[in-house]
Design a protein that fits this description.
Layout (H helix, E strand, L loop, with lengths): L1 H45 L3 E2 L2 E5 L4 E10 L6 E11 L8 E19 L2 E2 L2 H7 L15 E18 L4 E15 L5 E10 L5 E9 L4 E12 L2 H9 L4 E15 L2 E21 L2 E17 L4 E10 L2 E6 L5 H6 L4 H10 L4 H12 L7 E18 L6 E16 L5 E10 L3 E9 L2 E15 L4 H8 L3 E15 L2 E15 L13 H8 L5 E5 L2 E4 L2 E4 L2 H13 L4 H18 E4 L8 H16 L4 E8 L1 H22 L8 H9 L5 H10 L7 H8 L2 H24 L7 E3 L3 E2 L7 E8 L4 H14 L2 H4 L2 H6 L6 H13 L3
Parallel strand pairs: 5-7, 15-17, 16-17, 28-29, 28-30
Antiparallel strand pairs: 1-3, 2-3, 3-4, 4-5, 5-6, 7-8, 8-9, 9-10, 10-11, 11-12, 12-13, 13-14, 14-15, 14-16, 17-18, 18-19, 19-20, 20-21, 21-22, 22-23, 23-24, 23-25, 25-26, 27-31, 28-31
Helix pairs in contact: 10-17, 12-15, 12-16, 14-15
Length: 799
């Protein structure tokens, strides 16, 4: 019996040893065999070359590990996908026709996804491994159950390349974790996080997904995620363009992937530091922050509820050129580049897809319940530049603020308030109330004030040849509209307009502006018209009764008031020349009246040795530089055309150069040959011929020449110790010209005091009394000393 037990133990031992040895042999050999088989039959079965550093397969536990697995592109030595894989198969469940992966982990995966229109670099794999219709269908009793559980992607990096646009993008630190998918359940949950691969930012979140219905629940947080990828898509629809910015979000949403309107979302979304433009240094549009506080967004449920929508520091630049404008150069004439791109890239360019999605979300907005507690635009800057004229015109609406509270679909009217500054000068405002149920019911009040006419000189010179050097524009408008029927009062007032001397330039139109002013300007030196607008919104009727009556009045009565108007003009001229000396662009000479004024100052300083004056140079530097630039470029063309050198240019030549239009076809042709084709304006092309350094040098010479001309009168009389010239102040003067503003230390000259007394008396007379308060605002242009003296004069005037 003892011998039998010994034999049994030996048998069990040897059997166990054999089994263990067999297991070891199987484990030891199956792993290299697996590696060999994969690398041997990779192309045959996958169409791709596959390599790996090591394979470990345990058929008894189901554990499999591939180290540094690499799958190459089809017919290429470029790697398509690489990773290390760890997974475990539940071997015992195979007996019940259940294939279950208890976990699957991809460590440090790197994948490169390449798209060319509708084809991907993995399309061949999908075709190869997709199910065939020819395969026999299994009976229900033969059904195989597949469970894939506990899936993980750890520290992944994914590259996306779209050849047709083209696009290159990547994400990194990709971590995805899910409990997986069981054969008898349609529900999956995911936890994910990733970071931008080309710049800053990251996002994370959790999601529940029904794989059958495609319903989802999502909670995600986004932190300063970079948006520069959009710039590559912009280049797909434009001739050029650079985009940068980032996005923050904290959103909770429910919806369906197959139905864009089946969405119910809430949370916060913000786009920050957004810029789009020609290049990194030239924006066409930008904003500091666009934020949406979402209470409920449900297009299918017809609910659009927002806590707030705000836009901070938006900027937009629009430039008109002789041919097209800055937006059309970017997006093609009338947007043709966008249309062509849409035909070819509608399914691949994400901008079109975003646009379609937003359009779907907003489709039924005005038919839904909506509410925005606060809508605001803060500190906007809208810049307009017109290069089609004989000189550049630039103006800006800045800062612009728009605020609307409680925009909702209810019986409550929506109130919106707009306030803006006009640069370089002026203000504007708009108050509007709208019936949310009927947009043909609304009220609004609009105004513009303190807008100098000289600001519009590029247009006056271009279309009349006459600049304006005085005058302020004010506009007031009040509208009440019900059922589309207008009842409005509109008032245009121009205080003290004055036409300057004609500028003779080839190509500039000529209109007798002074003659026109005779008919429209009233004897108080104002243009003041009421222009009511009545009728239907689609067919408004302008009532010009007041305009016609004033014109006829001026025709018959104005000649009778000529002495009065002459007196006013003489007094105004006396005051103005006592306060400033105006310089013509590029000029360093005085006219006869200015010389007479300086001689009066000389006599005043001689008679009053204790008195002194200070000249404050206020130069319209930007405009002076433009005039110098254009003149110097035209001079180069003139010398080329006539075979002359700089030293041979005489006064007559200078006059011809000055009068040469910058729109002259031969001059423009000359510039086009010398300058880059990427330059759109005459100014830019001239800058290619004349450097900024050269222009700055000419401006310094002009500044010194003006100083010398001014001081010469005082040097001759040994009065320079009573005269001071302050540092140059670069500004945009109200009258549109560079000037020397004169301030007096001590008492004012008698002629100035007398002029003030007379103008105060004239302002109290009927023709000017109505606009006396408006004229007071213009005193802000004067030196504070002058204002105080003026107040003193008025207080001392006898009753």
């Amino acid at each position: 019996m003892r011998i039998l037990n010994t034999k049994l133990k030996k048998t069990i031992f040897w059997i166990s040893l054999a089994i263990i040895t067999l297991v070891v042999i199987i484990v030891a050999f199956i792993s290299p065999l697996t590696k060999w088989a994969i690398e041997k039959y990779d192309v045959k079965y996958s169409g791709r070359q596959i390599t790996l550093d090591m394979a470990y397969v345990n058929p008894f536990t189901g554990y499999v590990h591939f180290k540094n697995l690499k799958i190459y592109e089809a017919n290429s030595d470029s790697v398509f996908f690489s990773t290390s894989i760890s997974t475990n198969f539940e071997m015992l469940k195979l007996l019940s026709k259940t294939y279950e992966i208890s976990y699957l982990t991809l460590n440090n995966p790197v994948a490169k996804i390449i798209q060319d229109t509708t084809e991907f670099n993995f399309s061949d794999l999908i075709k190869k491994f997709s199910s065939k219709d020819s395969l026999p269908k299994k009976e229900p009793s033969q059904a195989i159950h597949i469970n894939i559980l506990n899936l993980k992607i750890e520290n992944g990096t994914f590259f996306y390349i779209e050849k047709s646009i083209p696009i290159f993008y990547s994400i990194k630190k990709v971590n995805i974790e899910t409990s997986g998918k069981r054969w008898d359940s349609d529900k999956m949950n995911f936890k994910f996080s990733l970071a931008s691969g080309i710049n800053s930012g990251d996002l994370s979140g959790i999601m529940d997904l029904n794989t059958n219905t495609k319903d989802y629940k999502l909670a995600t947080k986004v932190n300063k995620f970079d948006l520069s990828i959009l710039g590559q898509y912009v280049k797909g629809i434009a001739n050029y363009g650079l985009v940068r910015g980032n996005i923050d979000a904290d959103l909770n949403a429910e919806g369906n992937f197959t139905d864009a309107q089946n969405l119910n979302a809430k949370g916060f979304l913000a786009v920050n530091d957004f810029h789009i433009g020609k290049n990194a240094s030239e924006d066409y549009a930008s904003f500091q922050n666009l934020s949406l506080g979402i209470i409920q967004l449900s297009p299918k449920g017809k609910k659009y509820f927002f806590d707030s929508i705000s836009l901070v520091k938006p900027y937009f630049k629009y430039e008109r050129y002789d041919y097209l404008d800055n937006l059309q150069y970017m997006f093609g004439k009338e947007g043709e580049a966008v249309e062509k791109s849409k035909e070819a890239q509608a399914k691949t360019n994400i901008l079109f897809q975003i646009g379609e999605y937003v359009q779907l979300l907003a489709k039924n907005f005005f038919k839904s319940d909506y509410k925005v507690k606060r809508l605001a635009i803060y500190n906007a800057n809208l810049l307009y530049t017109d290069y089609t004229l004989k000189e550049k015109f630039t103006a800006a609406v800045s800062p612009l603020t728009i605020i609307a509270d409680s925009i909702e679909r209810s019986d409550k009217w929506v109130n919106l308030k707009l306030r803006a500054g006009l640069k370089p000068f002026g203000n504007m405002g708009l108050d509007i109330s709208i019936n949310p149920h009927d947009s043909s019911d609304f009220n609004f009040q609009f105004y513009i004030n303190k807008l100098p006419m000289a600001m519009l000189n590029p247009y006056f010179i271009n279309y009349t040849s006459f600049p304006i050097d005085r005058g302020f524009i004010e506009v007031k408008s009040r509208w009440t509209v019900r059922n589309g029927i207008i009842n409005s009062d509109n008032k245009l007032t121009i205080i003290d307009p004055r036409v300057n001397n004609r500028q003779k330039r080839n190509g500039a139109k000529w209109l007798p502006l002074r003659f026109f002013m005779f008919f429209v300007r009233e004897r108080g030196n104002v243009i003041d018209y009421d222009i009511p607008i009545k009728g239907d919104l689609r067919d408004p009727k302008f009532k010009f009764k007041d305009v016609i009556f004033d014109v006829l009045t001026n025709v018959f009565l104005k000649p009778l008031t000529l002495p009065y108007r002459t007196q006013v003009r003489n007094v105004e001229n006396e005051l103005e020349k006592s306060l400033n000396l105006k310089w013509m662009m590029r000029g360093a000479e005085f006219n006869n009246l200015q010389e007479e004024f300086i001689e009066n100052i000389v006599e005043f300083l001689k008679d009053n040795p204790s008195e002194s004056i200070t000249a404050h140079p206020e130069f319209y530097t930007e405009k002076e530089k433009e005039y110098i630039l254009l003149f110097e470029a035209k001079k180069i063309y003139f010398m080329h055309l006539n075979g002359k050198k700089t030293s041979e240019i005489n006064e007559s030549d200078s006059t011809d150069i000055e009068r040469l239009s910058i729109k002259d076809s031969l001059f423009v042709h000359f510039l086009n040959k010398k300058a880059s084709k990427d330059l759109h304006t005459v100014q830019e092309k001239c800058n290619a011929l004349v450097s900024n350094q050269s222009v700055a040098k000419k401006l310094r010479q002009l500044t010194n020449a003006r100083k010398g001309v001014f001081l010469a009168y005082f040097r001759e009389n040994q009065l320079t110790n009573q005269v001071r010239i302050a540092p140059v102040k670069e500004t945009i003067p109200f009258n549109g010209f560079s000037l020397y503003r004169i301030s007096y230390k001590g008492s004012l000259p008698d002629n100035v005091l007398q002029a003030y007394r007379e103008i105060n008396q004239l302002d109290d007379e009927n023709p000017r009394k109505k606009f006396k308060q408006k004229r007071k605002g213009n005193l802000k242009l004067l030196d504070k000393k002058i204002i105080n003296d003026n107040k003193k004069i008025k207080s001392e005037r006898p009753a």
